[in-house]
């Protein structure tokens, strides 16, 4: 199938999905969230070879930044989050959407700055040490925020409810996530074909040689992680408005849920590929919804089995496996020696 036709069909499906399945609007929005976090994780984990376990830090921080910006435009944050203060806090349509727009932008920019600051420290580590170091940052952030009364502490923080029909709100949030996901996909499709994309791959293949060839590897690493953090921060901001109420450990900095899920999605679909995180996120989300709904109590066992099967039998991911089994589907040819080459 021609790529233009394929992309057009996929866009049409994405546009009509919430209307065809109105009862699954929240699940479809969550699917796009999974695609977003998988694509952004692969930006550094797959393309650059730095496997982070702390990208959930940017998601949770984005939620809180968006909430603080939105509230501070109208009320005093301390009064709003004071559990014993009581009172009624109302937001107009203009205040709600202004807070969402400004809060999302602020969340993305703040998370990008945080990525640069944290990266100066953590990028001195490699391999599992980098992964553990970033995980420590995310865990520490969750604990600190849960003890910060100004933002609600462990009880969390509540944002205003969507100021309209709730079913309409589900569609709005779906398209916010879908628009962000499509934008990230197109941006990465372009980025991976540039010199920057080649530099990331060089760092992944052999960072010392890349440094020796004149690449300023730290600059590339910081920039890549800042881009990933920017998009994840915006996704966190949208999630904050969608969820209405969230708290630090179980919702914002959920290291053992979304923080792990994004990694599994990429491993399942295929690291270092453009479509791998998308395919992996779709398969994983469907698998998760089925097991969480029909195998409650055994869902974590099923998830563990999926991870084991992926690691043992599909180390290259579904996309890598398909490229090996059906190279012609991807415009590849296999010569007599078994070498795979791009078809002319």
In words, what does this structure look like?
- This protein has 344 residues and is mainly α.
- Helix content is 70%, strand content 3%.
- It has 14 helices and 4 strands.
- Helix 1 packs antiparallel against helix 7, helix 3 (56-72) packs across helix 9 and helix 11 (258-269) crosses helix 12.
- It is globular, with a radius of gyration of 21 Å.
Secondary structure elements and pairings:
Layout: H1 3-20, H2 25-45, H3 56-72, H4 77-81, H5 93-122, H6 128-146, E1 157-158, H7 166-191, H8 195-212, H9 217-243, E2 245-246, H10 248-252, H11 258-269, H12 276-294, H13 299-313, H14 317-325, E3 332-334, E4 340-342
Antiparallel strand pairs: 1-2, 3-4
Assign the structural class, choosing from mainly alpha, mainly beta, alpha/beta, alpha+beta, or little secondary structure: mainly alpha
Query: Which segments are poorly predicted (pLDDT under 50) over 5 or more consecutive residues?
Result: none
Overall pLDDT level: 89
- Amount of beta strand: under 5%
**Most strands sheet:** 2 strands, antiparallel
Strand adjacency order, main sheet: 1-2
Rg, rounded, reads: 21 Å
Distance between the termini: 16 Å
User: Total number of helical segments?
Assistant: 14
The helix content is over 70%
Kindly give the count of domains.
1
Shape: globular
Task: Write down the secondary-structure element order.
Answer: HHHHHHEHHHEHHHHHEE
What's the total number of strands? 4
Q: Oligomeric form of this entry?
A: single chain
